[in-house]
Queue: 4 jobs
Job 1
Amino acid sequence: MKRLLTLRLDGEIEQGFDATLEIRQGDIHSPSQTRIKGRLSGNRDLLNCYRHWQQRYLSLEMLFRALSANPEQVTNSSQRGEAFAACRQAAEVLEGSLNHWLNTDPEFRSIRDKLLGSGKKFQLLLQTNNPWLRRFPWHRWDLLAEAQADVALSAIEYDCPNPVKRQITPKGKVKILAILGQGANLNQQADQQALEELAGQAGAQITWRQEPQASELNQQLWEQGWDILFFAGHSGTSQEGQRGEIQLNQTERLTIDDLRFALKNAIARGLQLAIFNSCDGLGLAYQLAAQQDLYLPQVIVMAEKVPDPVSPKFLRYFLEAYIRGESLYSSVAEAREKLHGWEQQYPCASWLPVVCQNPTVQPPTWKELRYGPINQSRWQLPRTAVIASFLVTLALMVVRPLGVIQPWELQAYDQFMRWRPDQGVDPRLLVVEITEEDFQYQDDQGMKRKWSLSDAALAQLLDKLQAHHPRAIGLDIYRDFPVSDEYQDLADRLPRMDNFFAVCQASNPTRNYGGIAPPPEVPPERLGFTDVVIDSDGVLRRYLWYATFNRDSPCQTETSLSLQLALHYLGAEGIDPKVTPEGEVQLGETTLRSLPGYAGNYSATSNAGYQMLLDYRTPGDIAQRVTLKQILTDQFEPSWVKDRVVLIGVTAPSVQDDFSTPFTRNSNQTIEMRGVFIHAQMVSQILSAVKDGQQLLWIWSEWGEFLWIWAWGSLGGFLVLVCKRLFHWVGVGIANLAVLSGVCFVVFIQGWWIPLVPSGLAFVATGMIVGYNRTLSMSCSVLGN
């Protein structure tokens, strides 16, 4: 985008001008970055030079008419040659005087130097009310010519057009009201042909009016919204330069004041550009831009009388560039440069076109006229939504591994886990719990208890259980000591019990923890570790099912207790583990996959072996429960034991073995889960996956999550474009976030933990970004319309 420079000159040609230069980095809506004040001295000689040139130029009018009527008659005329030479010489004098004035005035030097340092291809908006300054050929200032700068005029007094009645034109149409005024001695068909060939083929809807009555034109301006008002015919400017009129027909000459209210209505309804392809239109431009509260955004006029063949050439050159996509300034500049090639026949033809600009309005492109600012946003703002959502998603994917939003994601996981249907008791499991009453029972029976379960009680318990043929027995009680000598039968029996599994715990050098050794009587192949992975907030959400520990650890088994029990249970049915080519464990049709280093909503999983998300079956009883005393006194049903996985663990409050779960914060009370039930949950998860076909909780790939988050971010941006008002977007946004939560929860029930919080953040952030851009776009549209 070209830089915009605004040069304000306020004063009179004899006394001089106060000069102010403002520089903006972008368009007219960008804030002013630089403001420089200076002074431009008066120059009566320059005014005389202009009058002398104007006199010579106007003397060519009869020759222009003769040339149009009969070119051969005057081709070799000495009169023509002398007149053309005199005009060109006067033009050179005027151009030289203008450059000398602007380049040598010492009080104007600071502004001139700043213009010199502004680079090339900027836009200069000259603000002045002085009619003589408005007539000078500013495009011939060598500083601007060298910089290839576009020049336009503006009045000092201006205001933003009132857009209250703005009506969007039909889709894909530029609505042009084309007026052909009284056209004696004019070839108006050339203008009509240029408009129809170029504008008509480029999406214009042209309404022609040939020498209309003033009342008809007035009614036409009131009836509907127009984008462009075009006039071809005779026009002129008063001597003071601030009043213009058009010859509408043979009997009516109109000033802008005669059409004041109709034009004001047309401007309010979207009229953005007026083209007066007629003589001496600076007075018309001044009235439209600064008087009668009109403030028309853009006006293109001819500064002097126009040879009849020049006006259609200019119109064609301008439309070719404008429809091609050039800016309004650049299109007029290109047309002016092409007219320069005709100056052998029409001297100073390139001096004639002038753009008059309202400083509050960004000149529209042809595409903007055709589709309007709102329709233009159909392409620009959706693109902003896609790009913004992509960048927001990329930022989220970068910060997620840092754990910035992990607490929110884990809270969402916990909430989903609490919302899930309770699957109740797993009939394949039995938990034998050691309670405080069981401690007392053992003591009363004279069973010497070294810890929670005495040798005598363990021996009797195993006898009772084995009599009813359990599938597997897991002892979730640490026994890092040998069986006492008086229970040698138990010591001899433990190595031979193929369905009995004991536990140990690995050491942790980082916490200076030495670990817990397994029972010496149980062989390594029937040991399982009880180590778990606790999240930073103290909640157990992951299941460590396979790991390799340090060599000096007292626990050297690589399999968790729960996996050992599940494998033994499934092995009885002929379902043995297989290792896939990817190094994963396959049980029947189910594959136990380990969470990768990038684990979706987790910032990072630890390197403590193979992990999976712990899929809690229920917050309540996971299995049939029976106490030690009930087993030893035969107060249980044999069906509770037969073909089940039996876990033995301590539930007495005096022994600390509690874990926080996603259900812990489900009420005002802190409810934790005992370790033996945690292992039961893990066993149930594997059995349910293999036997019942239940999907193991899993995550999407990194690319899948990226696309999901990006899609929701894009949706948040697109909804801003659909919703007309902020509170509409807020309401629809809340509804869509509820839908997002619902979708994520439904998918969670199916076994997939997909991003909720990052998607919601992308949705809101993109919506805010696009909303901000839409606000800016609408602000520009208000100014532009």
Job 2
Amino acid sequence: MTAVFLGVRHHSPACARLVERTIEELRPAHVLVEGPAEMNSRLDELLLGHELPVAVFSHYRDGRRAATSWAPLCDYSPEWVALRAGRAAGAEVRFIDLPAWHPAFAERTNRYADAEVRYARATERLCEQFAVDSPDALWDRLFEVEPDEGVAERLDAYFALVRGDAEADAGDRAREAYMASWVRAAVAAADGGPVLVVTGGFHQPALRRLVAADGPDVEHDAVPGVELGADGWPLVPEPPAGADAGSFLVPYSFRRLDAFAGYESGMPSPGFYQEVWERGPQEAADRLLRTVVERLRARKVPVSTADLVAARSLAEGLTALRGHPRTARIDVLDGLAGALITDDLDGPLPWTVRGALRAGTHPVVVEILAACGGARTGRLHPGTPAPPLVHDVAAQLDRLGLSGDPARAPRLDLTDPGDLVRSRALHGLRVLGVPGYERTAGPAHGVDPVFTERWEPRPADGRDAALVEAGAYGATLAEAAAAVLAERAREETDAGALAAALFDTVLCGVSGLSAHLLSELGSRVGVLAQPGPLGEVLSTALGLWRHDRVYGVARDPLLAAVIGGATDRLLWLLEGARGPGGVDLPRLRAVVAVRDALRHAPGVPGLDRSATTAVARRVGRDAGAPFDVRGAAFGLHHVLADPAGTSDGTADAVRAVALSGVEALGDWLAGLFAVARDEVTAGVRPDAGGASEGGTGDGAHPVPEGAGSLVGVLDDVLCGLPESAFLAGLPALRQAFGFFPPRERERIAAQLLARRGLRGSSRALLRTTADPLLIARAGALEDRVTGLLARYGLDRHGIGGTPS
């Protein structure tokens, strides 16, 4: 007897019923299922009695390539039904597809990803023929709501049509050749008994042709590259030497199965189709209507009984109008939308297209689809083998006292050796993406002088699955975290992301990987073109080089190489800076990083104070450079130059820049204050906060002679401006003075009061209840009104003859 081929759509209740019915009627000797052949020796593990959905998670890693993929199974997956019902019928059950690591899967992360893109033209024509909006609605119309009689013939015709217009790629051809070799081996071993082949419908026509073309007399090893074992079955390919590959079962969830959440395969709305599988289409439709109303009411959305009746009536009417023998999912969704959504929508309803929900989707639509999707999460049988990482993490957390009550938020002192180990374990889990804890406070980068951390418990949904999946990276927490960080280092092209990876490496305590990351950084800093990201690298490396109280990597020679190379590159970029006006804050932070490197790492090779001072002097005088860069360079020169050999010149520089306009002055001051705020405002000291005569009323001391000369110069320059010019430059000035903390702004305000011989509270002057820009515009408006009144003799001198 030849093989019987059933082409199915993954996660289709109609196909699952067909598979179950066929096995019951056919009583096959062999049931062959599309799935990873390396799991054949572990089918007992797969059939332990898990709560579905679950997935076979496969991973592969070598020196050049890393890949992961999932083969999800739920109660109504035809593949799962074939395994379960085939085993129950006494058949030999086997997976027949290539392992997930095989190059045939390329970048595919989902073994059961459908081929809709490749047969889009055929489905588009069918959608037009049947007057439906999407392939999912077409599938429901043809298979899910129609009677089960004749479904096998309809499926054959459907897949023959869509495959006829599509071209299989090299990966699919390799998979189909391998699966065909299993079919021939099963036919030969069955001694005339039936062989049932359950695969995705896209592959079914090709498998039929391959097996039929070979004929009964063709040798089993006729397909190139497929070897047969001593037992007559195709050998499962082994991963290349030195590669790490394997498969494990993981819990899965309906959310991950839902096309509206980005899933690539099978049916959308898994919660709805679970109801179809268990109760049939009509009861599933009724339950969906009730569930949506309950969800909306729970979220305080007013939904009346009349609305529910209207939704049901619309769904029933659409069912009849569309000629559906039973209510389809699309009928229920359109009925709900018609009855419950009264607003204009800015796009088509999501179920008329395929793909994830767009941002800004109407909240009622979101709730409808959430009800369709369901909230079920699978659970593995307690006897399911787990990768070594799962056991290592459990043992570590138990040993560190972190496996108890998750409601207790750990507060860790990083200077304590025990807390440091706890911190590294939690950071390792964070890097691996394992939920359960989130860090809410702690050092943000290498320069951050913070030595405590706080971690808050978070929902741990999906924790078990995340741990199993993370097991693909290594057997221990440290090993897995190191592999993830190494992968990030290989893939990242942005300097800021590399700096973050470096700091994560330190936080995880993965000292063995730091050299690799630092080498990556050192090789890239010389070619980076943006000062901002490069400044992040320099800040992170400098902080780590300086501080070893926690991290233990201070004075590392590789870090020193990164610091020297990044500083040299930044100076080159700054000297060539050109561009429009405005303030580039990341670029200014990069200049601050250069300043800190020259201050705190003077012995690092490549750092030349005199050369840097010369560059800063040239850039500060470069009329073509942006004003914020010129101000920052002036500040850098001010900080680094020998005071005995230079004059300050700040006041003269302010006056010179002011000739270019107030906005230019604001940008220049922003650069200056970002780099040298303390140095250029040395006169604004804590004891210089009061008025020169009698104080401010705040109990401050008199201002020494000559103190705050920069403030005085700015005051003189700004007071000499026309009102319109001052208002135009006010936003830039406010941004510049935003570099001062509140207490320093208060002292500057006190000096301004003192220069005018006024008494009053500088604190009150700063804490206005209105926007200063609004106050300034109001003053200008008052001046214009006063001028108009005087012009037409309507001021108080012109009305009544004499002033009152």
Job 3
Amino acid sequence: MSPISTAAHPTRHRAARIAAGAVALSLVGAGVLATAPAQAAEAGGQGTADSLFPNVRNTGYDVQHYDIDLAYDHATKAIAATTEITATASVELSSFSLDLEGLTVASVTVDGVAATFSRIADLQSTTHKLIVAPATPVTGTFTTVVEYSGVPTRHTDPDGSYEGWVATADGATAVSEPVGAMTWFPSNNTPLDKATFDFSFTIPTTITTSTGTGPAAAVSNGELVSRTANGDDTTTWVWQQHEQMTTYLSLASIGKYDVHESTITLPSGRTIPEWSFIDSDLSDARKATSLASRAEIGPVLGWLETAYGPYPGNSTGIVVDNVGVGYALETQDRSFFDRSASRGTLIHELVHQWFGDAVTLSDWSDIWLNEGPAEHIGSQVEAALYGSDATEAVWYSAWNDTAADDAAWTTPVAGFDNPAELFGFQAYSRSAMALEALRLTIGDDQFDEIFAQWYLRLNGGDGSTADFIALSEEISGLDLEAFFRDWLFDLDKPAWPLTRTLEISSSTLSGEQLQRGDKVEYTVEVGNVGATDLEGGTVEIDLTGLVDSATVSESLAAGLTRSDDTLTWAVPSVEQGTLTASVTFSATVDDDATTGQLNVSVTAVDFGADCLPCESSVGVSVAIDPFGMPTISGTAIVGETLTADPGVWAEGTSLTYEWLRFTADDAREYEEMTGQPVDPGFVGQPVAGATGATYTLQPGDAGYAFLVVVTGTLEGFDPVSSLSAPIAFVTAPTVPLPTATPSTAPVSAGLAATGGDVAPLGVAAFAAALLVAAGAATVVLRRRRAERV
């Protein structure tokens, strides 16, 4: 994932949705083309469909870049400014509007030619228009230059708060959310139109107030390119914002500042500059608080970048000024704080750099998509980095402390239409509660993935409530219509989600294999790990992977019912805390079961739950029955052929052979080491290439006793290996070879005939014992002494 691109972003194509004034071609007669009259130039639409501010924005063009050159006179509090706007239009515009409140416009040019202009101002409807009529209609890319001056006025919002250009004792700070940018520069003042910015501020080099004279600074978004002393007691500060930015995130602040600079290395490996500005006249206590928060910028950005992707800006920092607006603001890259920057507020504004800045809202009634994540993710950061309460404790407490009859619940989170409610309870607390409820409903992994994808897919653009709901359903795989209706749109207090754990376990030990006729007991358990008592619920137990090989007991515990291959458990109420409710049922492995797995899974039907785990898998091991006991026929003389008779096996069994051999010394050494009778399956070594039903004895086989392992495989059963008794130690042929074929001697006689070397080992007795073991259907797998491996 890459940061916001200045080359392209989703809003760049919004203007293209307007029908283009293309030249139309039609057929006239046979093969003759005639050109229709060109579409007449039109006026850009002076407004939008925004729920709260329909009279802000122009729909006729899309801004690419703002270049703002502003001079500030501290004695008069006035500004003299020039703003150059590069924009594109997909239709031919006879006129268009810019949003500008107050100030006196001296001139407007479009593509270097003087344009006529007029003004419309209506405080009640938040309409402040500079209407521009170029000398000739414009289309494609065009440049508008506006020269203006005066003492900027702050903008009063419908809720009585104020924003825009706010004068201070030592200068001014311009904060622009939601519409205050128009108090200090003309713009297309909508979240839907992002652009890059150049800011040039010429200000007094020093400023004198009642507290004394001090160095002044001019602060804005992006990167500080230069600060140049002009030789006339003024300094020009130049900032550049290379990333896409909406007007409501623009910042200008002029005053006496303590300037702090550093660099921050992010987890992605990128190093970015940090410029922070703290009002020189603030108390030592406020400065100390702000500096302590400044020290946390790196750790917080690191946590957020690790969680959601690369930091979307190219610089960072804070601006702390004594303004008196009573709020902080997520001005892009460098957030603004009024009088003091606390740690919690800093975290909130840094979260906004991803959610609210990189991805902005599509409509001002979607403000919860900015403030909800900033509040909720902020509480995650507090818990992860600073040991604060877990998110459920934080937001359950907020939910529990707000009474059901509180009027706060009567404003929907999304879709409200009163701009006075823009920054109300629903935008912050209820939004964060809704996100916590979503996390509890779908689980941590999917919840985190929603926000990672929200940033990945929409970085540089905007998103709506409908977009967020669709993404949540896509990632969770759930139908969340009822959930979001309850938490975002209904005008009452929603129920807090029930939070549980769900698991299934069996009575089998780890690695244990069941046999036919064995009984297994299953336990399903629900634990209450939430903040409220659990009032029942339903769990479904899927028996599909069990019933083909086992029979479930017909005697079911209270609360369990069965329908076909599903058990349904009506979960009883579970008190808040770590208390649990459980239910058991049993099954018996069928007499005709084959080798395989018994699989049982559980699902919470009407509540969210973390599974630990959700499935139980128990192995069933069934040997081939019957299986054969191999014997060897043939003479133990070099040159003769030994033949393995596999015995009787179940129909359809596939057989493989492996011939082993050992010497008397091997047998003696084994008995000396173990003090046990010889186990030929242990001392026997495989004969290379001897994998058929017959084996012809080679000269090198003299002195060895031979045995054969026959392995049978049959679908639905465990493979079985059976070991024959050994044949006598092989001797070299006499010369000449006998003319008559000697009869095959019994194994015990053949072993006894080897003489004194064998007798002390009791090989004959061993061979007889081996026959008994074979008759008992002992399964013997290949084994070797460690020193021979």
Job 4
Amino acid sequence: MPRHRRVDTGGLRLRLLAGAAVVALASWSGAAQAQDAPAPTAPPVVGPDGLTPDAVYLEADVALREGDVISATGETERVLARFRNTTLRAGRLSYDLNLGVATADDRVEFVDPEGNVIFASHLELDSDLKAGVAVDFATRFRNGASLMAATAVRRSENVSELNYALFTPCPICDAEGNPKEPSIAIQAEKVVQDESLRAVLYRNAVFRVGGVPVLYLPYFAHPDPTVERASGFLVPTPSYDEGRGVSLELPYLQVVSPSEDWLISPQFNSRVSPLLNLQWRRRFENGIVVLRGGYTYERNFGDFDLDGDGDAESNVKFGDRTSRSYFLGHGRFDPAGPWRWGFTAERTSDKTLFDRYDVRDPYQDNGLYYGDQRRLISQVYTEHQTDRSYVSVAAFALQSLRVVRFDPVTPALNQFEDDGALPVVAPLIEARWEPDGPVFGGRLRLRGSAVSLYRDDYVGSPVLRPEITLPGPTLGLPGVDSRRVSGQVDWRRTMISEMGVRWEPFVDLRADLYSVGDLPPALGLEEETLGRGRATAGVDVRYPLIRRFGTADMILEPMAQLSISTDADLDPRLPNEDSQTVELDESSLFRVDRFPGYDLYEGGLRLTTGVRTTLRWEEGRQASLFIGRSLRAEEEPAFLVPVPDAPAQLYDPTGLASDTSDWVVQADFSPSDRIRGWGHATLDSSGNVRRAEIAVDGRWGRRNLATVSYIIDRSNPLAGPNNRNYEFLQLAGQQFVYGNWGVAFSGIADLERTPRPGQPDPGYLVQSEIGVLFDDECFRFELGWRRDNTSVRPSGPSEGPYVRLTLATFGGTGY
């Protein structure tokens, strides 16, 4: 008879290392009888839990062994067993050392090697953990989803079958741990989880929202919650536009391999032909390629004044049907070593195709250089970077979708920027190098740059200086081509005196060589080769002072820069391609080169002063304010350009042409962890605002938030159709009213542009949305009303309902 033994340890834990070790010992003994000497054996493999594959670790108050069966009971705490990188807890546990079968009852909790947790009142597991039976089964996945059933049977390593089951991606307990009704759940007569198919299959499925049944399907399937991505339909995107009518986009994801997939996303419209969107993604060992495009065969549509009465007929189709398409592709490769490379390819057949069909996120920054809003860029580039050097070589071309003149009657007749007025850049080379170690006690940096630009059409100001800008018709004139090579040496040393004053003397040497062709023939100018140079020396001085007021610190830092350069050689024959826009702020004000490019630079004697005040107090709260400006010995009229609507008049868009620059005022503040803000402004000598921007973010409660921003540009002094001054106010936020229910809102107001004829004052509101919001840990749903008065929209103002839905586990509307 088998030996019967009971071990009662009271408060003492019984730790038993057993398992198949008993069988292994018997097998080894038999082998020893058949051989003269035992063969050497490899040491056992120890897992991450410190156990060999055949070992069991057991903790229990009471343990009983009958032959190969160990029975354990937890009187004060549940029994704990660890084996094969899994953990099992239960009120009662039995384990067959010979068969490797475990049976557990009473508050069973099982954690598999991947970290998924299973709960049950009764659980049986076989030796390979490939099959088992559970009663009152419940499991929680790593992503928070839960699956429950009356009974569960694990048929094999990959297939689990559940009867009378419920699946939910939502929390089933509140913050205090009390049970609650999940927001979204799927209840089914039978559920099969097939890990080889990476899917969960349902029979007689009922969808519940807040516990209320809303949909029945005899069969349903979705990817396993642990799957990052799988083939199938994504959440559809409904929308409405007065030009397209009711639209529904149905994205389908086809996963080819773990590193490749296709996204087929047709957009069906009630008023116009469908638009087919396609996307292909492939990840390589050291890079990724994404190719995206769309196609439709349709006539143009929008607001057109067909009868000439000044009133636009809404959403009229115009012209012949033709193929319309877009292509947006990019790739990045970063192999081991200092080199990396990439490309972008972006083109569209219509300048308003993205607006007409509401193409998602067409303007993205995917390459070395960016085509800013409403400009597409196609480029190839390569980079080489080490600790002490950097080199980039690129070539690119642009396609513009910008409006240069808004039609006063209908946006369908807006005038767009001509692509021939934009340069083709091939190549653009940037390089810099720093020696390893100080030179004359300071940091030495060598820079080089070279670029070639080719333009088909003639462009006047601000590319060409006022002296060579043609006053008459320019249609048919060739664009100015230019080539430039630049070299620069920059040396700077930092010294701190005993009083804490920071001194930084610097020297900057620069030389440029230009070759300019296709200059205006009416001026009698030929192709020119021009050289110029500049030498600058100066010193930066800063003296930070700090004082403590109770629990707050105040830091006052006055700063100044004195520099002297050789006179600027701003030959009027040199085009201005890269320095048309200057953003004066705290950082750029103290640079030797305040222009972003090479075509314009400053010379002469300059004194720049400023002061920054920072207040910091407990809990990370702070506020800072900077005020500064620059003074120069002489004015620089070469920075002046013609006023767009009065070419005979000149104005200064840079704020640097006078002997005193614009004032720069910059501030940021965060009085609490729920309020943050920043602001920036440039003011002329009279105190008038030329440019300003301010933004404030606020949060209150647990999820309530709002953002307000204001931006203004008043640099152009004369009003007119070509005046590009602007003034916008933007507001967005959400306010929860009851539980997870709230209101979402957003709006953009154009305070500069007047409404179109026949429009009421709300024409000032470019875009606006307001809707009802439901948001919890499981899903977010918005239903509201949207109006779009964007002047660039070819189909005119549009308003209608919108729906946005994002589901945990299943994804959201969009891709």
